[in-house]
Amino acid sequence: RVWGAAYHIPAEHVAAVRAYLDIREVNGYSIQYTSFTPVDAALERVPRCMVYIGLPENPQFLGVQEADALAGVIWRSRGPSGENREYLFMLEEALRELGEGAGDEHVEDLARRVREIGEREGGGRSGINVAEEAVNGELEKVKSGSSSHEQEETEKSI
Predict the structure, then answer these.
(1) DSSP state of 30
(2) Does 11 have pLDDT greater than 50?
(3) What distance in Å separates the CA atoms of residue 105 and residue 133, rounded to the nearest whole number?
(4) Rounded Cα–Cα distance for residues 147 and 37 (Å)
(5) Which letter, b or e, does each residue of 71-92 get, where b requires 16 or more Cβ atoms within 10 Å of its Cβ?
(6) Please, are residues 45 and 37 in contact by the beta-carbon 8 Å criterion?
(7) DSSP secondary structure letters along the chain
(8) CA 140 to CA 38: how far, in whole Å?
(9) pLDDT tens, residue by residue, 20-78
(10) In terms of C-beta density within 10 A (0-12 exposed, 13-18 middle, 19 or more buried), how is residue 93 classed?
(11) Is 97 assigned a catalytic role?
(12) Is the pLDDT at 145 greater than 60, yes or no?
C-alpha cells in the first residue's frame, strides 16, 4: 500500500496552488495521475488525482545511496522551499498522522540518521512553506491508502 493525503482544492485556488506546487516540486518530481481511495469508506473514491512523483529518470535522482551518505546529503541540502531535512522531518510526522500502517521504515531511519548528524554538528529545525499556506488553510485533507499496484498501473498508462 502507498499512503498519502489528498487535498480538495477549492476552484478559486486551483491556479495559485498549481503554480506554487509546480515551482516547489518541478525540479525533482514528475506530475503523474492516480486514483485515490480514502481510508474512510464513507468518502468517495477519487478516480483521478494529480501527484508529484520522483522518478529515476529525473536528473535530480541520486540513485541508490548508502543510508548514512543519503542522510548527509539531506542534512546539507536546501531547495527553494527550505531545508531538505525539515521536509524529511515533516514527511515523517505526516506519515505517522495518517494512521496505523502508514509509517515508512526508510523515512523513519533517514530521519533518525539526519537527527544524529544534527546532534553531532548542531543545528535545529527551521520552517518551510507548505501548500496549505498558499490557500490560507482552506484545503480539505483526506486520508488514504491506495495499492502500489494501482499506482504502478497508472504510471504505465500515462
Answers:
(1) E
(2) yes
(3) 28
(4) 9
(5) beebbeeeeebbbbbbbbbbeb
(6) yes
(7) -EEEEEEEPPGGGHHHHHHHHHHHHTTT-EEEEEEE-BSSTTSPPEEEEEEEE--TTSTT---S--HHHHHHHHHH-EETTEEHHHHHHHHHHHHHHH-TT---HHHHHHHHHHHHHHHHH---------HHHHTTT--EEEEEEE-HHHHHHHHHH-
(8) 12
(9) 888 878 777 888 999 998 888 898 888 889 998 888 988 888 888 999 999 999 999 98
(10) exposed
(11) no
(12) no
Q: Which of 12, 25, 83, 86 is catalytic?
A: 25
Residue with cell 515533516: 90
C-alpha cell at position 148:
502500489
Residue 141: pLDDT over 60: no
Block residue for cell numbers 544524529: 116
Whether the CB-CB separation of 7 and 130 falls below 8 Å is answered with no
**4 vs 109, which has greater pLDDT?**
109
Q: Please, which residues have CB within 8 angstroms of residue 130's CB and are 6 or more apart in sequence?
A: 90
The full length of the chain comes to 158
Q: Answer left, alpha or beta for residue 123, where phi above 0 means left and psi between -120 and 50 means alpha.
A: left
